[in-house]
Design the sequence.
């Protein structure tokens, strides 16, 4: 049997185009949060158009404006801003071009949100979903162990779960992959003047990015911040907060590991991987098959 490990957006996209696979998932995807965690868009590319066309979803798109803010005023993007932003947001020098959304000032995105796409794909793939938490993978025997169930044998495995978690499941020692905590603070719209920008990269503020959502803003801060310290920053404008281990800080990116294909930002340990790249890899296989 062929399995996809992880039913987040990456697992669902790959599963949609590769219907011979079953999807194993413990239901803790990045889309399952109390409020939107930062800016989320599906950029308009050839591959995301193919994906939405297959799903017969609307191809309506719009432009999103991205702001840069330094010392209490909006500024234009510059390479020195980028350098300082890397230190502020990651605590290290900029090492990849995808940081700050490739430094664009605007981008074209679909009206359909990643959350809507995720819900739609989950519905499409529901018959092939196996709920449960994987506790061990035996690469030699090609078996996957789930909590309280007999191990499943696999002929092919595509992993979309974070690479450090996969290493753990395969009992491989992990000394190089490091992730960092991010605190997402949901705050009142009146806290920050967003002008007509949908998200803004910030210097000189306790948060490094702020994004606009329906009826509220979300500020992203490095590290784990408790309610007391968030209150000191946002006061009565603080509405809610969540913490996630979502920053990839160190470690080499990979495309496969011991015969297991890796797909997705955290699975490949590659910060530059976005929904459009996952769609490209998944559609490519699909198109090859129907040729
Ligand atoms: C603030 C922010 C903004 C972002 N904006 C964008 C954006 O605009 N565009 C974009 O493309 N990307 C964006 N990203 C990245 C985005 O989060 C990822 O691309 C995407 O959500 C990751 O999906 P995934 O399926 O790869 O992983 P996940 O959503 O983490 O899914 C992994 C799945 O694996 C399951 N799982 C884990 N361990 C096990 C186990 N042991 N057994 C069974 N199941 C398991 C989990 O339950 C989960 O459902 C953003 C990220 C952040 C933090």
Sequence:
């Amino acid at each position: 049997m062929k399995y996809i490990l992880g039913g987040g957006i990456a697992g669902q996209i790959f599963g949609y185009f590769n219907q011979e696979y079953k999807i194993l998932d413990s239901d803790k995807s990045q889309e399952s949060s109390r409020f939107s965690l930062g800016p989320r868009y599906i950029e308009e590319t050839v591959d995301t158009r193919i994906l939405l066309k297959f799903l017969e979803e609307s191809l309506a798109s719009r432009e999103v404006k991205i702001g840069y803010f330094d010392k209490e005023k909006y500024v234009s993007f510059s390479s020195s801003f980028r350098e300082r932003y890397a230190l502020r947001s990651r605590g290290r020098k900029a090492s990849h071009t995808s940081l700050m959304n490739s430094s664009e000032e605007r981008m074209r995105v679909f009206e359909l949100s990643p959350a809507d796409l995720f819900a739609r794909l989950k519905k499409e793939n529901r018959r092939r979903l196996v709920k449960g938490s994987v506790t061990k993978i035996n690469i030699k025997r090609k078996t996957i162990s789930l909590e309280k169930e007999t191990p499943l044998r696999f002929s092919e495995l595509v992993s979309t779960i974070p690479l450090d978690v996969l290493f753990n499941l395969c009992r491989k020692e992990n000394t190089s992959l490091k992730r960092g905590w991010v605190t997402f603070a949901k705050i009142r719209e009146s806290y920050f003047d967003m002008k007509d920008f949908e998200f803004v990269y910030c210097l000189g503020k306790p948060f490094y990015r702020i994004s606009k959502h329906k009826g509220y803003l979300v500020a992203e801060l490095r590290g784990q911040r408790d309610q007391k310290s968030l209150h000191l920053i946002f006061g009565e404008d603080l509405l809610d907060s969540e913490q996630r281990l979502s920053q990839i800080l160190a470690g080499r990116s990979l495309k496969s590991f011991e015969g297991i294909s890796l797909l997705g930002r955290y699975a490949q340990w590659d910060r530059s991987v976005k929904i459009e790249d996952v769609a490209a890899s998944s559609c490519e296989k699909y198109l090859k098959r129907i040729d």
In short: Residues 63 and 108 are 5 Å apart (CA to CA). The domain at 1-60+111-177+252-291 is CATH 3.50.50.60 (FAD/NAD(P)-binding domain).
